[in-house]
Design a protein that fits this description.
By secondary structure, the protein is mostly beta strands. It has 1 helix and 29 strands. The chain folds into 2 domains: about 70 residues, Sandwich (Immunoglobulin-like), CATH 2.60.40; about 300 residues, Kelch-type beta propeller (Neuraminidase, 6 Propeller), CATH 2.120.10.80. The chain is globular, with a radius of gyration of 21 Å.
């Protein structure tokens, strides 16, 4: 069982700590007590603790008790660590996109409501003309992980490809009334003209985008960027700036030189490095140690691939690398150590690959981890360029 640190924000009014008093966080089902390790892990705005061993899987309620009273409860889900190995994973096709795409942004979230809705989004990207699009699609997720019909919703304010997308919900952010889809950066032309715009889409309870607006722009235009929301903060890393030069540090592989987004040639400056940095959960900033290069590298230098965290492991899928036309290293994975470093990377080929399931050898695709309606974790891989037929955009969608 994965014992994630659980944090509460906001409505802890009556439970604020008084000097010298006894205080603890408790889980409603069995009233298990969660330990506060250090004084700095308890403030009026943030509590950091670890779910105790023995708490059952599924939805639970966290609340805080002090001499001042009991806080408003926070509902969260305790999930099992994913039993994961690409060598045994069986990829399954699900509802295909209405058109083949590459360079599209993909995001997933569970939207709150009387009945929570698990949704995935595809924003922007390019079809076989390589011209960026303004379309936004969404599909709901079933209890088995399959995605339903792709539905068009309100288009982006401008055409964009190679952007990043994330969803802010009350679970990962201090938002309350609605959830929000962010589409960040990207390029506005087939040749890679980076933009700094950040679009903010307001989501209905059913998943549709009801309105778009712009929010704080990036410091500079950047495409092929990565983004993630963690503990109420939005982090953007990697990508290419003006002239298609890499201007940020890549986390797993990537290109360290000039590269055009739609180019199907493996760059001579593709890298296999894995770098990591720890986030201070109290401040949201990176710790003083900064970025560290892991001793374990990817199996090959690779670019235009995807990387998804899957239950204590990281899965790297497809992209451009030596042997990409035959899928010789389509998937590789490594465990994540407590200090942030990775174990050695292992690979999967043959029957346990997306290519074997009919997805082809792709790059510039998209991938995301998501939960089905039962809370089970899956990975979704969507679309992409075909290594063996450049400019042929695939519309296949696969999950495990």
């Amino acid at each position: 069982m994965r014992r994630q640190q659980q944090r509460t924000h906001g409505p802890l009014g009556p439970a604020r700590r008084r000097r010298g008093e006894r205080r603890h966080a408790a889980l409603r089902n069995d009233r298990d007590t969660a330990t506060i390790t250090i004084a700095g892990d308890w403030t009026n705005n943030l509590i950091v603790t670890t779910v105790p061993t023995g708490v059952p899987l599924g939805k639970d309620t966290l609340f805080v008790e002090t001499a001042g009273g009991t806080s408003t409860p926070v509902v969260f889900t305790v999930v099992a660590k994913v039993a994961f190995s690409p060598s045994t994973v069986s990829w399954t096709a699900t509802t295909a996109l209405p058109v083949g795409l590459s360079g599209h942004a993909l995001a997933a979230a569970t939207l709150p409501g009387t009945t929570p809705t698990s949704v995935v989004y595809v924003a922007g990207g390019a079809d076989s003309t390589n011209v960026p699009r303004d379309s936004v699609l969404y599909a709901t997720v079933s209890s088995t992980g399959t995605v339903g019909t792709w539905t068009r919703t309100m288009v982006l304010p401008a055409r964009v490809a190679f952007a990043a997308a994330v969803v802010a919900t009350p679970t990962n952010s201090p938002v309350t009334a609605s959830s929000y889809l962010y589409v960040i950066g990207g390029d506005s032309s087939a040749s890679g003209k980076p933009v700094a715009t950040a679009y903010l889409g307001t989501l209905s309870a059913a998943g549709a985008v009801s309105a778009w607006s712009t929010t704080t722009a990036l410091p500079a235009g950047v495409h092929s960027v990565g983004a993630v929301i963690f503990n109420g903060s939005l982090y953007v890393a990697g990508g290419s700036g003006s002239g298609n030069n890499g201007t940020f540090l890549y986390a797993l592989g990537g290109d360290s030189g000039t590269v055009t987004p739609n180019d199907s040639s493996l760059s001579a400056k593709a890298i296999s490095d894995v770098v990591y940095a720890e986030i201070d959960v109290h401040t949201g900033a990176l710790t003083a140690a900064g970025w560290t290069v892991s001793a374990s590298k990817l199996k090959k230098a690779v670019s235009k691939h995807t990387a998804v965290i899957a239950g204590g492991n990281v899965l790297v899928t497809a992209g451009l690398y030596t042997g990409a036309s035959t899928g010789s290293t389509e998937e590789s994975y490594a465990g994540l150590n407590a200090d942030g470093s990775t174990t050695a990377f292992n690979g999967a080929t043959g029957a346990n690959t997306i290519a074997a399931a009919g997805g082809g050898d792709v790059f510039n695709h998209a991938a995301v981890g998501y939960l089905d309606t039962t809370g089970a974790f899956h990975i979704l891989v969507v679309g992409g360029d075909d290594v063996n037929a450049p400019t042929k955009k695939r519309k296949g969608v696969f999950y495990y």
